[in-house]
Fold:
Amino acid sequence: MTVPATTAASLDDPALRERFLGMVGDGDEYAAVELTTSLLDAGVPAQQILLDLIAPTQARVGELWAANEWSVAREHAATAISERAVAAVAGRTMVRPHRGRVTVACVDGEWHALPVRILAEILRLDGWRVDFLGASVPGPHLVTHLHQTGPDAVAVSCMLPTRLPRAHAAITACRSAGVPVIAGGRGFGPDGRYAQRLGADAWAGGAREAAGRLAGDWPPPMDDPYRTPFLGDEEYTYVVRQRPVLIDTALRRLAGAYPATGGYDQRQQEATAEDIAHILDFLAAALYVGEETIFTEFTGWTAGVLAARGVPAAALLAGLRLIRDQLRDYPAATRMLDAATASLRDA
Structure:
């Protein structure tokens, strides 16, 4: 496969990105790997291929799934091809470590590993010895690894706000082991505002920024690792502990609040149960950090996903109302539910 000279100098060409998207969407591993290695042969830096081709293509894959243009199966297959492309680039670009050692991992319950894999490769190309631990690393196992290897930093990723309580526990545990933490991922909020609240030593909006932070004045002075030991209050605790009851009660009452669900088949019923569970998980995360926008942004996004699948906003509004009815004695939770309801109605 040949790469045009104009493409070798830059990956801004939308046509090239569309070609790569077509390859991963068709499950064409051979073509995707051949394209990335051809770009390397043409002189395109590996960092540019990872960050300006593979990463934005994967973001587009997620958008296509949300718009119901791609199935879950196709999205998973495309992700696997992107991972093979990353591996192909990594296999062709060996850099001897000269900076130090970094542990890179997703927090417990976080399964979006490809962005973290790209970060690991960017840091490796920048001269770091990288221990890439992959998706959903339990906190105790992560700390054990730190004691065994003694890295200069831990990079933790959280793509979904629902993982913030576990991210908080991991950050506190890592810092108590004497290892500074740099956080990244959309789950930490716009500009990483929740990362600092959860005690992280630094935050990076992307792999380039993370590499720059680690290559600069690092490690930062460490203060008390337990300065933010716990953020959740009694409302958060109640929602988490009563989650199964809240879900079951909402499902039992749903047919009365939204009669269309009475004709749902098994698959639709399971999807509805998952949606209600997600509502509660995001509500709990919003309560944990005291940030209403976590919940309202999620419900707005969910409304768009459901609309793409032919489910009207009335169904989501009914679910929110059924949950609110059960949490009427909890002011912060009801305030967030009311805000989400108002936002959906305005939209």
